[in-house]
Design brief:
By secondary structure, the chain is α+β, with helices and mostly antiparallel strands. The chain is built from six helices and four strands, in the order αββααβαβαα.
Length: 141
C-alpha cells in the first residue's frame, strides 16, 4: 500500500469516527479516482436516517452508477473502514467500481461485536426453475 493509499484509508476511518460521533454505526468510505483525488465521501447513517441500507459503501456505489461513466467508474478505488457486507459488495459489483481497499476484515469486525455479528437467515432454493427462467430468459442478450 502506498502512502497516498494509507492517507485515503485513514480518511475512511475518520469518516467512521464521524458516523459514531453522530450516533450511527462506525463505518466510513470514500471513492477516489486513479490519481488519488477524492470524488465522494460517505458515512453510515442507518440510525439517524432510519434506513438499514444506508451503508457508506452502498451510497457510494449508487452515486458512482448514477454519476460516472463506466470507464471512469472502473478506474476508481473505494477506501472503506471495514470490508463491505454482502449487500454492499453486490452494489459495488453492479456499479462497476475498479477496486476496494478496506481496513478491518469482516471476521475482525465480528470479533469486536458481542455475539459475533448477525445471525444467518436460512435460504431455500432454487425452485420453480421453468417459471422463473421465463421471466429472465433473453433479457441479458
Amino acid at each position: 500500500m502506498t502512502p497516498d493509499e494509507e492517507r485515503l484509508l485513514r480518511r475512511a476511518i475518520e469518516l467512521a469516527g464521524e458516523a459514531r460521533a453522530a450516533g450511527d454505526p462506525p463505518f466510513g468510505s470514500l471513492l477516489a479516482d486513479a490519481a488519488g483525488n477524492v470524488l465522494a465521501e460517505e458515512r453510515n447513517t442507518t440510525i439517524t436516517g432510519g434506513d438499514i441500507s444506508a451503508h457508506p459503501e452502498l451510497k457510494l456505489a449508487r452515486w458512482a452508477a448514477r454519476e460516472l461513466d463506466p470507464a471512469t467508474a472502473a478506474a476508481t478505488t473505494m477506501f472503506t473502514s471495514c470490508q463491505p457486507c454482502g449487500m454492499c459488495t453486490g452494489a459495488i459489483r453492479r456499479s462497476g467500481l475498479g477496486r476496494v481497499v478496506y481496513a478491518l476484515a469482516e471476521e475482525q469486525l465480528d470479533a469486536l461485536k458481542p455475539g459475533g455479528g448477525w445471525p444467518e437467515v436460512p435460504q431455500e432454493g432454487p425452485a420453480l426453475y421453468d417459471e422463473a427462467r421465463a421471466a429472465v430468459e433473453g433479457y441479458y442478450t
